């Protein structure tokens, strides 16, 4: 059996009992180490799980999936994923490969940012398409996400924006020269993300992300009851002005608030506001919320 197991969002204690049983029955256990990060080192996971973990980077999962799946038709093999297994398309790919090899599979779910985002007070059924925001370079500034945000905005829906992480990435020069030299890990901050959103709005000028008229909520390390969890709400302009330490440690996510904002959603999120008075004023004047 090949197990794909979600670890949740915080630390080693977020594993489900079903997931823990599957790990302990497995002859090999891999830890996916590039689509997200845990707040603890793998040694703490190994101590609780009672199993050594093999770190699996992007190259291993995408090009060496047969090695991971080896003998999984006759013995248990597990791949551990931060959050929920279906938070990244890579994991669908390896399941399809297992199907081709006639290997039985089992998915064990856990919390992910896709549902933990509800901690900010916005209702999950009011969210539209989720988008990803990547680090811009001097020559590459993809802005297709803007169209998805606009589609959500046209329906009044909230947009969850997943911020880029760079783990075990090579520079263009090292990649061109075939040198296995990797850049230090980078995690996009809220300030960086808001600056990029403003840059795209300036270029597009469709009024989707007007900084002083668009409410947004920044989230850091949500889920699992982490002591490091941080939620901050405000206009995009306000969030851009905040010092980095206001938002806490990575990973960060950002929610663009949709115009169908319910007054109860607005009131709950006001508890995290940089300035609750400004939050309520924009919610009332721009979003049409009635707090009476």
Automatic annotation (TrEMBL):
Pathway membership, UniProt: Protein modification; peptidyl-diphthamide biosynthesis
Source species, domain of life: Eukaryota
Record GO terms (molecular function): diphthine methyl ester synthase activity
Residue numbers binding S-adenosyl-L-methionine: 9, 84, 87, 112-113, 163, 222, 252
Entries under InterPro entries matching the protein: 4pyrrol_Mease, 4pyrrol_Methylase_sf, 4pyrrole_Mease_sub1, 4pyrrole_Mease_sub2, Dphthn_synthase
Domain Tetrapyrrole methylase per the UniProt entry, residue ranges: 1-239
Enzyme class: transferase
EC number(s) per entry: 2.1.1.314
Catalytically driven reaction(s): 2-[(3S)-amino-3-carboxypropyl]-L-histidyl-[translation elongation factor 2] + 4 S-adenosyl-L-methionine = diphthine methyl ester-[translation elongation factor 2] + 4 S-adenosyl-L-homocysteine + 3 H(+)
Alphabetical UniProt keywords: Methylation, Methyltransferase, S-adenosyl-L-methionine, Transferase
Gene Ontology biological-process entries: methylation; protein histidyl modification to diphthamide
Signal peptide limits: none
Role according to the record: S-adenosyl-L-methionine-dependent methyltransferase that catalyzes four methylations of the modified target histidine residue in translation elongation factor 2 (EF-2), to form an intermediate called diphthine methyl ester. The four successive methylation reactions represent the second step of diphthamide biosynthesis.
NCBIfam families for this protein: dph5
HAMAP family the record matches: Diphthine_synth (MF_01084)
UniProt family annotation: Belongs to the diphthine synthase family. In the N-terminal section; belongs to the precorrin methyltransferase family.
Name recorded for this polypeptide: diphthine methyl ester synthase
Organism listed in the record: Russula ochroleuca
């Amino acid at each position: 059996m090949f197990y794909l197991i979600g670890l949740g969002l915080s630390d080693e204690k977020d594993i489900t009992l079903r997931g823990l049983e599957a790990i302990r029955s497995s002859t090999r256990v891999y830890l996916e180490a590039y689509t997200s990060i845990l707040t603890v080192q793998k040694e703490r996971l190994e101590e609780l799980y009672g199993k050594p973990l093999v770190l699996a980077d992007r190259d291993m999962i995408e090009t060496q999936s047969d090695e991971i799946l080896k003998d999984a038709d006759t013995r248990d093999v597990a791949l551990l994923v931060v959050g929920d297994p279906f938070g990244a398309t890579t994991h669908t790919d390896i399941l399809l490969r297992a199907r081709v090899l006639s290997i039985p599979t089992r998915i064990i779910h856990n919390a992910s940012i896709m549902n933990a985002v509800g901690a900010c007070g916005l209702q999950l059924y009011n969210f539209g398409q989720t988008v990803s925001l990547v680090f811009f370079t001097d020559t590459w500034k993809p802005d297709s996400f803007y169209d998805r945000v606009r589609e959500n905005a046209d329906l009044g829906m909230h947009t969850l924006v997943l911020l880029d992480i760079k783990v075990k990435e090579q520079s263009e020069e090292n990649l061109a020269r075939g040198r296995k030299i990797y850049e230090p890990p980078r995690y996009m901050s809220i300030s960086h993300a808001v600056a990029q959103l403003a840059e795209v709005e300036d270029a597009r000028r469709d009024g989707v992300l007007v900084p002083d008229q668009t409410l947004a909520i920044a989230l850091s390390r949500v889920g699992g009851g982490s002591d490091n969890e941080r939620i901050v709400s405000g206009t995009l302009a306000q969030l851009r002005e905040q010092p980095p330490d206001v938002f806490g440690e990575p990973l960060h996510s950002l929610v663009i608030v949709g115009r169908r904002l319910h007054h109860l959603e607005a009131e709950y999120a006001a508890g995290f506001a940089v300035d609750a008075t400004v939050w309520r004023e924009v919610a009332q004047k721009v979003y049409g919320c009635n707090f009476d």
